[in-house]
Design brief:
The protein has eight helices and 13 strands. By secondary structure, it is an alpha+beta fold.
């Protein structure tokens, strides 16, 4: 594959303690997502269209905590959040706590293009989807047997916990996201999630919040974040990365600096993918792993499960 000049795309499939037995599925899913977004860029499509296409593929893959296969909340429901942002004009669309939409990233983009609002939640977001002809699905279409059994097992103990520690069985990792730079020099970012396991109904994390779950500005960078939402939103992590780039840091330095702030000011863990206006890529996190894939302007696809910088000997990237 050959890119339109200057195009770059990065996706992530969550940053957490991804079980070894599910590394392959996470890498394969990230590869599928980046290939879908890359097809948009190589056909002359915009960065905005590319990140939507990439995230839609990840939402369809039950390996991840987004779209189908998402974690269940305390009421055994799937509630989805998503955001998409255009670096050209800072236009943003976001949705929160939607239950009947298979692709919340597409609903978010519809909101960006067809509404004066930047964010809708719950029933209002689903009403907007119906008004604009977006397919509505039954909640069962988003549910997987694995997640239902996991919820039942946790509640059978009588003391179910959110942020349940990873067990021996493969589980979805976390939030998914994408950042892109197109041939016209425009940046875009998108993030989608099912949120935390056993969350209180109506809980909204960082993912759909502008500057937290994602940010894109042609003057600096596009960023998508993943991890413990309550911590990520406290430091407005995606905007923080862009601010560091505005101060002169490169993409990797800015990502690592933002993660350092996250670690210093909160007890939370998370990760970011960064793509600056010059096409430089950064991947930073303080979780055990982050699943990712990217395509450079040369058309090379790189995928992997990356360990933190402090233990990068565990990194398993493969340039394919």
């Amino acid at each position: 594959m050959h890119a339109s000049s200057g195009s770059v795309l990065v996706v992530h499939g969550g940053a957490y303690d991804i079980p070894l037995e599910s590394h392959e599925a996470h890498v394969a899913g990230c590869r599928d997502g980046v290939e879908a977004g890359w097809a948009v860029l190589t056909s002359g499509g915009s960065a905005l269209a590319a990140v939507e296409a990439a995230v839609r593929v990840l939402e369809e893959n039950p390996t991840f905590d987004a779209g189908r296969g998402s974690f269940l909340n305390a009421a055994a429901q799937v509630e989805l959040d998503a955001i998409i942002m255009d670096g050209r004009d800072l236009n943003v669309g976001a949705v929160a706590a939607v239950q009947h939409v298979a692709h919340p990233v597409t609903l978010a983009r519809l909101l960006l293009t067809e509404s004066e609002h930047a964010m809708l939640a719950g029933a209002g977001a689903e009403l907007f989807a119906r008004e604009h002809g977006l397919p509505i699905c039954a909640p069962e279409e988003l549910l997987t047997g694995r997640e239902l059994e996991r919820w039942k097992a946790a509640h059978a103990t009588g003391k179910p916990q959110a942020w349940e520690p990873w067990g021996a069985q493969p589980h979805p990792s976390d939030t998914v996201g994408a950042v892109a730079l197109d041939a016209a020099g425009n940046l875009a970012a998108a993030t989608s999630t099912g949120g935390t396991f056993n969350k209180h109904p109506g809980r909204v994390g960082d993912s759909p919040l502008v500057g937290c779950g994602a940010y894109a500005d042609n003057r600096t960078a596009a960023v998508s974040a993943t991890g413990e939402g309550e911590a990520l939103m406290k430091v407005v992590i995606s905007k923080l990365v862009c601010d560091f780039i505005a101060q002169g840091m490169n993409a990797q330095e800015a990502g690592e600096a933002a993660i350092q702030i996250l670690a210093e000011r909160t007890p939370g863990e998370g990760g970011v993918i960064v793509l600056d206006r010059r096409g430089q890529i950064g991947i930073a996190h303080n979780t055990p792993y982050i699943a990712h894939a990217y395509v450079t302007s040369s058309g090379e696809i790189v995928t992997g499960i990356q360990a933190p910088a402090s233990n990068r000997n565990q990194r398993s990237d493969d340039g394919l």
